[in-house]
């Protein structure tokens, strides 16, 4: 048996802890009751009569892939503007920008032969790459697992096609971390190899899925001289696996590939913006958005059609459920996230120029899957407040509230006062479809999309209600 | 400023709370460190070189749907037995049972005409239903939303086809709750209408998805006399929606349907059982399982091929990661969950007969989706212990640990001492595929399946390590 004094201390401690907890619980329950009712109303509306899914069907199936500068991107701009007007959003307008204009050209071709056996290789040019010569490129292949390994090979790369083949780490639970651990090969592979006279670069597709689809994505030659530019393509994971095996027995096999992509002069395009004017602080803004452009291979469904329709749905649901926000809620359909983030830069620059007060910004650009949580990127003062909302959304499966990061389109707004957040759905299937021909409408589940839209609307409701106004000093 | 005494109390409280927390954390961290390392090893193995996905491909694509009593069900039994032997499981054996043997017969047919417009209606007979006469049934339709409403209509049902059309409640976040709120129509619709002379029953498919696939499932005539049996079918949700609309303008439309299903005499079949013998308590058992039978329309992928391969994978992963369990870990591939649970009843009855000591049982029969948590159904003593494992699995996304319920195949083991649990994955997509022709291998995501297998293995590891042995009084 414990001695008395310890028991007393423990007893006192328990009582004090309980009292303290009780006070906290009273506060929490007051917030909870009103807010949990409001949030339930939002979820009910989204799940019963949400519009996001049918909007997505329209955007993805009637317009499809919409790479910056393409006719489809322009159609998407007009689609977004019309939809906002139809929904009665206020101050609907286009924000003009100039965007990079890269075109894929005709379908790429790649193969190699070992003896009589021809292996066709599914490839696609990476965004920003130059074309091969008309007759294509034929060369031996040198396989590496990292930029460092390529650099170390140095002059051995001359005249070769460099094959970057470091796979995603499957043991990382969040697939975005696995992506982050590999994507340098895609982005900087060509830049790294250029100075050593490589004639081509092929990169294992950025996915955990073993399949026959090449996954495109942006690459950059950085600041190397243009005579060092090498044509760069992604190859499917199945083809990467086979090539790796074939190279073991046939290290001198000749690989052929041809692509006819090119970069045209910058083209005019637009962010699309609409609002609900704030009742109390009409000149202070909460932005919610995704990106309207997509890669050209699929329909841009999970990347980022879902973020677009969810962001539009946030404003519709606020109106539908009778919420009159204090701050002006702005939906922004950002253009050119995929290969330039020109829309994001323009939006942030104009906000700064106009000395707009931005209270918060939320981005959805991680797919339209079942919600898991939100990230927080803001100051210390608001962090605790933000995290205190977790119990309000955990009944809807949002348990993963993390610190750090938001999204490429809202990040440029960061200024030390704004609260930034990224919508975080289940990441398991995202890279199966990311930047490929399979990123199509049928891969999106209606309820998963609706749950995400409701979760985002709930967060915007809470941010509008509770976030302190911290004006930027003018 | 607060007064000093309050400050002191608060300060003391904080210190005491902190100390108490520290003690708790030391205890927790001791458990955590060893266990979290072990669990990480399990997840790594499953995600890097898991076998569940390829096993599922084999079961679903080379055998396919495997309704109790069918040749495919027998093939699945042999498949499971062989796989267990190949994996080196011990005491691999078949447990003989007799199962209901219902066959669908030729493809069903249904339509109605309004003026010159013929509407074909996708239907499928419900499991256990009788056939229509050879020439089919043609009758007017009476729509109801519940068993109660049907009962209240009474004699108005005579000569009519009763159309049960209460949809899932889309506002319920867990779709199993929505299913639970509707499935009485499918199970007991015919039983309810029989005494009033209805000539047929058609039931809206049990899904939130609006599509053209009828979803089958078990129904029962209960104890009504066989002359009151009515042929019963499911119709697709899109067809249910259209029929509902057409009935408003054409309440006397004539609906035709034909089906040729029948119930044959009970057939011999088997549960398939394998083990890893416990090092310390070889005569005490922890069971993990799913059901080997499925409906005939699809490939039985999510229901319950995934549960089968995950359960097999639990034993493989325990061996693979070098875990030597204290108790005997038994995998059971239960036969006949869908239309009789004869396998489950036999397994529990034999356990009781042999006076086996069953420590715990875990079932996976909610689809192969991303893990969200586990349910607990056991005594109060072990509940807290079970719930204390949550922090070990929350890094893998398992936040929803609920009390109550396990699964139809392990529930008969309940005896007041055993710890029962059900594996709970994300429920959003489950009823899109449930009991339809679309429940096929391609609907299962490899990583989601692997994460589930790892979560289940982790729970079995923890149950084996920590659950108190509470022998049944013999």
Domain count of chain A: 2
- Average pLDDT level of chain A: 93
The CATH architecture assignment of the largest domain in chain A turns out to be 3-Layer(aba) Sandwich
Order of strands in the sheet with most strands of chain A = 1-10-12-11-13-16-14-15
Low-confidence stretches of chain A: 1-26
Radius of gyration based on Cα positions of chain A: 25 Å
Secondary-structure class of chain A:
alpha/beta
Q: Which chain pair shows the most residues in contact?
A: A-B, 34 and 35 residues
CATH hierarchy, class of the largest domain in chain A: Alpha Beta
What can you tell me about this protein's structure?
The structure is a homodimer of 474-residue chains. Chain A is α/β, with parallel strands linked by helices. The first copy, chain A, folds into two domains: 34-102 and 265-466, 3-Layer(aba) Sandwich (Aminopeptidase); 107-260, Glucose Oxidase, domain 1 (3-Layer(bba) Sandwich), CATH 3.50.30. In chain A, 38% of the residues lie in helices and 23% in strands. Chain A has 13 helices and 16 strands. Chain A has helices spanning 4-49, 52-63, 71-86, 147-153, 175-180, 183-194, 237-249, 301-320, 342-353, 380-387, 390-393, 430-433, 446-466; strands spanning 90-103, 109-114, 117-120, 123-125, 137-144, 161-164, 200-204, 232-235, 254-258, 262-276, 281-291, 327-334, 357-363, 371-377, 402-403, 419-425. An eight-stranded mixed beta sheet of chain A has the order 1-10-12-11-13-16-14-15, with helices on both faces. In chain A, helix 1 (4-49) packs across helix 13 (446-466), helix 2 packs antiparallel against helix 8 (301-320) and helix 8 crosses helix 13 (446-466). Chain A is elongated, with a radius of gyration of 25 Å. Chain A starts with a helix and ends in an 8-residue tail after the last helix.
């Amino acid at each position: 048996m414990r001695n008395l004094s310890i028991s007393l201390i423990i007893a006192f401690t328990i009582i004090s802890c309980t009292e303290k907890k009780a006070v906290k619980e009273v506060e929490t329950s007051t917030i909870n009751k009103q807010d949990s009712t409001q949030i339930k109303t939002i979820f009910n509306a989204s799940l019963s009569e949400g519009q996001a899914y049918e909007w997505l069907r329209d955007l993805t199936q009637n317009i499809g892939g919409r790479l910056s500068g393409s006719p489809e991107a322009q159609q998407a701009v007009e689609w977004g503007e019309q939809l906002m007007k139809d929904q009665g959003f206020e101050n609907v307008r286009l924000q003009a920008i100039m965007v990079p204009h890269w075109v894929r050209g005709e379908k790429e071709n790649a193969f190699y032969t070992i003896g009589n056996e021809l292996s066709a290789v599914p490839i696609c040019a990476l965004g920003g790459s130059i074309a091969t010569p008309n007759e294509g490129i034929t060369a031996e292949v040198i396989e590496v697992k990292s930029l460092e390994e390529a650099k170390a090979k140095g002059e051995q790369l001359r005249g070769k096609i460099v094959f970057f083949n470091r796979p995603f780490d499957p043991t990382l639970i969040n697939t975005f971390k696995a992506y982050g651990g590999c994507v340098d090969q895609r982005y900087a592979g060509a830049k790294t190899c250029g100075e050593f006279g490589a004639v081509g670069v092929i990169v294992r597709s950025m996915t955990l899925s073993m399949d026959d689809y090449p996954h495109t994505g942006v690459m950059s030659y950085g600041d190397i001289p243009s005579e060092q530019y090498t044509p760069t393509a992604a190859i499917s994971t199945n083809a990467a696996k086979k090539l790796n095996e074939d190279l073991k027995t046939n290290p001198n096999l000749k690989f052929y590939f041809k692509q006819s992509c090119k970069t045209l002069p910058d083209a005019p395009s637009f962010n699309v913006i609409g609002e609900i004017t704030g009742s109390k602080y009409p000149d202070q803004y909460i932005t919610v958005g995704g990106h309207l452009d997509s890669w050209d291979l699929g329909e841009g469904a999970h990347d980022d059609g879902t973020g677009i329709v969810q962001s539009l749905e946030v404003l519709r649901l606020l109106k539908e459920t009778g919420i009159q926000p204090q701050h002006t809620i702005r939906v922004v359909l950002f253009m050119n996230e995929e290969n330039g983030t020109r829309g994001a830069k323009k939006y942030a620059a104009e906000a700064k120029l106009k000395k707009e007060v931005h209270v918060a910004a939320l981005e959805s650009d991680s797919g339209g899957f079942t919600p898991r949580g939100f990230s927080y990127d803001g100051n210390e003062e608001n962090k605790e407040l933000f995290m205190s909302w977790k119990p309000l959304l955990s009944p809807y499966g949002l348990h993963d509230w993390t610190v750090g990061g938001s999204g490429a389109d809202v990040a440029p707004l960061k200024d030390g006062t704004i609260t930034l957040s990224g919508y975080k759905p289940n990441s398991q299937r995202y890279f199966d479809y990311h930047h490929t021909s399979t990123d199509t409408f049928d891969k999106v589940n209606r309820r998963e999309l609706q749950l995400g839209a409701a979760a985002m609307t709930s967060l915007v409701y809470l941010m509008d209600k509770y976030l302190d106004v911290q004006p930027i000093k003018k």
